[in-house]
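tool=predict chain=A
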Amino acid sequence: MKLSKTRAGNGAPVPGTKDTPAVAFSNDGDPSLSGQRRLEPNVGRDTRRKVIAASFIGNFVEWFDYAVYGYLAVTITAVFFPESDPQTGLLMTFALFAISFLVRPLGGFVWGHIGDRIGRRTALSWSILIMSAATFCIALIPGYATIGIWAPILLLIIRVVQGFSASGEYAGASAFLVEYAPPNRRGLYAAVVPASTATGLLLGSLLAALLTGLLDDSQMQDWGWRLPFLLAAPMGLIGRYIRTKLEDTPAFRALAEEDHAVKAPVKDMFRTHWRQLLQAVGAVLLNAVGFYVILSYMPTYLSEELGLGATESYVATTIALLTYIGFIFLTGMLSDRFGRKKVLISASVLFILLTVPAFSLLGTGNFLVIVLVQILLGAMLTLNDGTLPSFLAEMFPTRVRYSGFAVSFNLSNALFGGTAPMMATLLIAATANDLAPAFYLVAAAVISLVAVALSRETSNQPLRHE
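tool=predict ok
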C-alpha cells in the first residue's frame, strides 16, 4: 500500500521536489509493523545536507559553551570565587555547572511538548537562539572583584537559562536527523549529533590551549576567558537562520496533517511508554557520566589532580577529540550493520573492564601515554555516544519521539552528567584516591549495560508513526 501526502501540517502545499519533498508512506505488507505504517522519507540530497548542517551547528554551539566553561574552570574559579581556597572554589565552579543541568528535565518537558505538538523546527530554532544569547551574556558578567557576590549569582542565573534552552537541542537534532535519514542509515545520520558536540568541545579545547599559551594568568582573569563566550552570538544566529529555511520532518508533517499529533505528548509518553522511558534513562547514564568526565573534566583532572601542565592537558584532550570525531561516524555505521544493542553493550563491557587500568596509566605522567589513554577512552565512549541518538529516537513513536528522547536524555544528564565533574572532584577529596572518577564510570557502565540488555533492538526496523 502506498500513501502520499502533498500538504504540510498548516495546510500549505508541499511540492514533491528535492527541496520540498512529498511525504511518502509504505508498509509493503510487512507483518512486523503490527498495524503501524513505515515512514519512508522521500527527500533529496540537498535537503538532507541542509538538515545535517542545521542539526550540526546547534549542538556545536551548545557544547562549545560547555567545553569552554569546563576547560577554563580554574580561571573562572579565580574570577568568581577568589576568596575560596583552590579546591573549594573549583568545587563551587563545578557546582554551578551541575546546577544548570538540574533545570534540564523541566526543559525536556517544555521542548518535548513544543517539538511533538508544534514542530521539531520551531523547537530547534528557538532553543539555539536562547542558548547562544545566554552564552554571550556570560562574557559580559563583571567579576567578583567588581560586584561581589552578585557575580556568581548572575553566572548561576545565566547557567540555568542555558540549561533550559540546551535541553531541547540534542534530542531535537537527533529526532530531526533520524526522521529525515534513509531507513538503513539512521545510525550514521544520527551520529552527526555527537560529532557536532565533540567538534564544539574541540574548538573549546583549541581556544583554551591557545589562550593559556599566549596570555598570562592576570590577562586570562581580566579579559582572556571572556573571548570564547563572545563567539556564541554570531554562531547562534547562523544556526537559527539555517533552521528557519527548512521544512519540518516528513514524519511530523504527516502526523500533523492527519491530525494525529497528541495534545499532551509528555502525558501520553508517561502513560503508554514508561518502560521505554526507564530503559532510555538507564541507557543514557554511561553517556552522561562518560562524556563529561572524559571529554570535559579531563583537562582539569590532568592539571589539578595529576600535576600536568595546563597547556599540555588541553593539547592531550584536543588530540583525543580529533580521533573521537572520526570514531563517532564509524560507530554510527557499525550500529546500522550490527544493531544498536550489540554496540551499546560492547561499550558498557569495555568500560567495566578497562576504565580503572586506563586511569591508572594516566598517573604515569608520560605525555604520550596520557594521549594514547585518552584516545582509547574516547574510542570506547564513541561506541555509546555514536549509537545512542538513533537508539533513543527509534525507541519512541513519532507522536512522542521528541518528548521521550528529551525527557530521558535530560533527566539522566541532570542527575549524573552535569554533576560528573563535581562528583569526580568530590570523590577524590573524600577518598584521597585519584582513581575515584574511574570507579564512578564503571558504576555508570554497569547500570547502562542492564538497561540496554532489557530493551528491544531498533535498528533496521520501521519507525513507528503513531
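The longest strand covers residues 2-5. Residues 2-454 form a domain with the Growth Hormone; Chain: A; fold (CATH 1.20.1250.20).
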